[in-house]
From TrEMBL:
<comment type="similarity">
    <text>In the N-terminal section; belongs to the acetate CoA ligase alpha subunit family.</text>
</comment>
<dbReference type="Pfam" id="PF13549">
    <property type="entry name" value="ATP-grasp_5"/>
</dbReference>
<dbReference type="GO" id="GO:0005524">
    <property type="term" value="F:ATP binding"/>
</dbReference>
<keyword id="KW-0067">ATP-binding</keyword>
<protein>
    <submittedName>
        <fullName>CoA-binding protein</fullName>
    </submittedName>
</protein>
<dbReference type="InterPro" id="IPR003781">
    <property type="entry name" value="CoA-bd"/>
</dbReference>
<dbReference type="InterPro" id="IPR032875">
    <property type="entry name" value="Succ_CoA_lig_flav_dom"/>
</dbReference>
<keyword id="KW-0547">Nucleotide-binding</keyword>
<dbReference type="Pfam" id="PF13380">
    <property type="entry name" value="CoA_binding_2"/>
</dbReference>
<dbReference type="Pfam" id="PF13607">
    <property type="entry name" value="Succ_CoA_lig"/>
</dbReference>
<dbReference type="InterPro" id="IPR013815">
    <property type="entry name" value="ATP_grasp_subdomain_1"/>
</dbReference>
<dbReference type="InterPro" id="IPR016102">
    <property type="entry name" value="Succinyl-CoA_synth-like"/>
</dbReference>
<keyword id="KW-0436">Ligase</keyword>
<feature type="domain" description="CoA-binding">
    <location>
        <begin position="17"/>
        <end position="112"/>
    </location>
</feature>
<dbReference type="GO" id="GO:0016874">
    <property type="term" value="F:ligase activity"/>
</dbReference>
<dbReference type="InterPro" id="IPR051538">
    <property type="entry name" value="Acyl-CoA_Synth/Transferase"/>
</dbReference>
<dbReference type="InterPro" id="IPR036291">
    <property type="entry name" value="NAD(P)-bd_dom_sf"/>
</dbReference>
Length: 737
């Protein structure tokens, strides 16, 4: 099995309060309906070894433990205070905690910023006291926390057992659902749980760092509704995922405030897909469905990673083998091509009618000898073409289905699988029809740390997560090995990620004039940074078209209005295509001017831009938005007028590596379009990756660029005279305050 590798470089300050040596329960109670009672019961029943200090001015003893009239009366300095009191009392109690030297407080009460303006003021008052007295706040409006390896159970949850899954969840009910699922599963255990609540002080990134450092946590698992600081979370996630898996279920869309976005990029950036892409860029395993959270967390916690996507399926039923093959293909995994020597070994083990191709169908060979399945797994595990093994069928249930005498042979098979798991780095994932019944052989596998699933779909999602993590770690190590002396790795490749004279002047002028770059200005900035742009001319009057027509000859031309007040030129009738000769240019000029003035009578129109028509090719969009949650984000996808309809796009946070750019292109679903369809040649992929990197460098060079849209960019094959043509460019600039 795969061990956890590496260590984080620093130490979170949360260890003292998430694994406290002593706890004050403020608002402790003997009333079973109160949270102060449940917390006391959770600590007592759980066997907490530290000191417990119930605080209640109306009691001298609570559940057999001496109670204290106030925080100040406690003859010690607890490491953590649990506040089970109404919201209005919290600011004052936080101040008392601080004066007592208590460094952390869990605030259960609701009634803060989530309730409206009055709650916002109360939360601000609480934080003012916390900051003044050096108290860290978990919550408010939190479901609480537990640390089972330290016997701390402030939720008083029954039947939760210690294990390797750490959880941070914005939903208390989600934690309860996971706990009940783990109880039913019988294998999964938890290390630490935290409900972050309003995150008024401690946020997801802080909790993730703690779980990354916690020696009892093998996998960090998060249910996220919204990030307070997405950029910081991504930074921490990159560090943590280098040493242990991180699983995230992201509900809903990120809080973008992009409803009034002025570009295609802005319109798309608020999507759920953006959050998913950025999390995966940081090495996070993102699950799409809530019922995948625990299976994927368990699988990654136990098995950690796979070397690749090649899966060998061993099945005792053809139907389920086919289902497994379908699900594997849908998940982006591949059926391993078994070596001839492996198939020869399988033929020695199985009946002649068995299929030794992948999926391997034992065709009844195991009906009277179920340990043959383990023998097949051993043979396949030795194949260098195989990265993961997937056992599919009824293992564990042969003694129930056929004859009790088979239980002994199934146990022998289980022991062989355990020995194999200990001897190989290749993950062994098992789906069994009998998993819900938990027969002895499956219980033995569970006890040895092999994941057993009652769903082919869950098992395949685990296999996909293992492959994704293996690929990420390989790329991460590659990036680390290529680090330059400045320590920035591939990101330091940006030798041109610095402002240029013309570009800076254009940006400064636009800021001063409270406008965005005009199209020809945007293209001039691109050109200065080594991005090819088409030849174009600006005419401020119809008379200037005479010289422009002569310069371009009879090639087809496009004409566009130039105005800082008309951002979407097509909507204003400000674009005309396939123009030839002076007469057509003059007629188009007057048509565009009339349409633009009709669209916006107050618009400041500076003329028209004339440029040769781009040849047909593959249209894509490249864009950038400075997201309020995640910071600067680059987008790539299919372009043209359908970009917001198809939404076949990929996002990456900046700065990004060349590997990030390559993966952006590979992520697009319409790969056939990029690779050539119906006889068309493939686009110049290397030139596209270089273009993405140059755009990323421009964004880094000019922090005042708020949004950038290149749409469409027409891509051409490698043997074309030019690799791409930028048809339209839009750069939106931050306004001077």
């Amino acid at each position: 099995m795969n061990p956890i590798e590496g260590h984080l470089p620093s130490r979170s300050p949360l260890h003292a309060i998430l694994a406290p040596q002593s706890i004050a329960v403020i608002g402790a109670s003997a009333d079973p309906t109160k949270r102060g009672y449940k917390a006391m019961v959770g600590l007592i029943k759980g066997g907490y070894r530290g000191a417990i200090y119930p605080v209640n001015p109306k009691a001298t003893m609570i559940l057999g433990i001496k109670a204290w009239s106030s925080i100040a009366a406690i003859p010690d300095t607890p490491a953590l205070a649990l506040l089970c009191t109404p919201a209005v009392s919290v600011p004052g109690l936080i101040a008392e905690c601080g004066r007592q030297g208590i460094k952390g407080a869990v605030v259960l009460a609701s009634g803060f910023a989530e309730t409206g303006p009055a709650g916002v003021l109360l939360e601000q008052a609480m934080m003012a006291q916390a900051q003044a007295h050096g108290v860290r706040i978990i919550g408010p409006n939190t479901s609480g926390m537990f640390n089972l390896h330290h016997a701390i159970n402030l939720l008083a949850l029954d039947n939760v057992k210690p294990g390797g899954i750490g959880i941070v969840s914005q939903s208390g009910n989600m934690l309860l659902a996971l706990a009940l699922e783990a109880q039913h599963n019988g294998q999964v255990g938890f290390s630490t749980y935290i409900g972050p609540g309003n995150q008024s002080d401690i946020g997801f990134n802080d909790y993730l760092r703690y779980l990354g450092e916690d020696e009892n946590t093998r996998v960090a698992t998060l249910y996220v509704e919204g990030f307070r600081d997405g950029r910081k979370f991504l930074d921490v996630a990159r560090e943590v995922t280098a040493v242990k898996p991180v699983v995230v279920y992201k509900s809903g869309a990120t809080e973008q405030g992009q409803q009034a976005a002025s570009s295609h990029t802005g319109a798309l950036a608020g999507s759920y897909q953006m959050s998913v892409d950025l999390l995966r860029q940081a090495g996070v395993s993102v699950v799409q469905y809530s019922d995948e959270i625990l299976p994927v967390a368990e699988g990654l916690g136990l098995l950690q990673k796979a070397a690749g996507k090649r899966v060998a399926v061993i099945a005792d039923g053809g139907g389920q083998a086919t289902i497994a093959a379908d699900r594997l293909a849908e998940a982006g995994l591949v059926l391993a091509e078994l070596a001839d020597s492996t198939r020869a070994k399988l033929r020695e083990i199985l009946f002649p009618q068995a299929s030794t191709a992948n999926p391997v169908d034992v065709a009844g060979s195991s009906d009277s000898h179920p340990s043959l399945l383990a023998m097949c797994m051993q043979a396949v595990a030795e194949d260098d073409n195989v990265d993961s093994l997937f056992l599919v069928g009824m293992f564990g249930g042969y003694g129930l289905r056929f004859d009790e005498s088979l239980h002994a042979d199934e146990m022998r098979g289980a022991e062989m699988m355990i020995e194999l798991a200990q001897a190989t780095q290749k993950p062994l994932v098992i789906y069994s029809l009998y998993a819900p019944i938990k027969p002895p052989a499956l219980r033995r596998l569970h006890a040895a740390g092999l994941p057993i699933y009652a769903s082919i779909e869950h098992a395949v999602r685990v296999l996909a997560a293992l492959a994704e993590r293996g690929a990420y770690l390989t790329q991460y190590q590659h990036t680390q090995n290529e680090r330059t002396p400045n320590g920035r790795g591939e990101r330091a490749h940006a030798t041109n990620a610095a402002p240029r004279v013309l570009g800076q002047r254009l940006i400064d002028t636009a800021k001063q004039q409270q406008r965005d770059l005009l199209e020809f200005e945007a293209k001039a900035l691109l050109l200065e940074h080594g991005i090819q742009v088409p030849t174009e001319r600006v005419a401020v009057s119809a008379d200037e078209l005479t010289q422009i027509a002569a310069e371009f000859g009879q090639q087809p031309l496009a004409m566009k209005v130039v105005s800082k007040d008309i951002l979407h030129k097509s909507d204003a009738g400000g674009v005309m295509l396939n123009l030839r000769g002076e007469a057509e240019l003059r007629a188009a000029y007057h048509t565009i001017m009339g349409a633009a003035h009709a669209y916006n009578a107050q618009a400041n129109i500076e003329g028209v831009l004339v440029t040769p028509m781009a040849e047909k090719g593959v249209e894509v969009i490249i864009g950038m938005l400075r997201d309020p949650i995640f910071g600067p984000v680059l987008m790539f996808g299919l372009g043209g007028i359908f970009v917001e309809v198809l939404e076949d796009v990929a996002f990456r946070a900046l700065p990004m590596t060349r590997s990030d750019a390559v993966s952006m292109v590979a992520q697009i679903k319409a790969q056939k379009v990029l690779k050539g369809v119906r006889g068309a040649a493939a686009i110049d992929n290397n030139a596209l990756v270089e273009l993405l990197m140059r755009v990323a460098h421009i964004v880094e060079a000019y922090p005042a660029i708020k949004e950038l849209d290149l749409n469409p960019v027409v891509l051409y094959p490698a043997d074309h005279a030019q690799p791409y043509a930028i048809v339209d460019a839009r750069i939106i600039v931050e306004r001077e305050q």
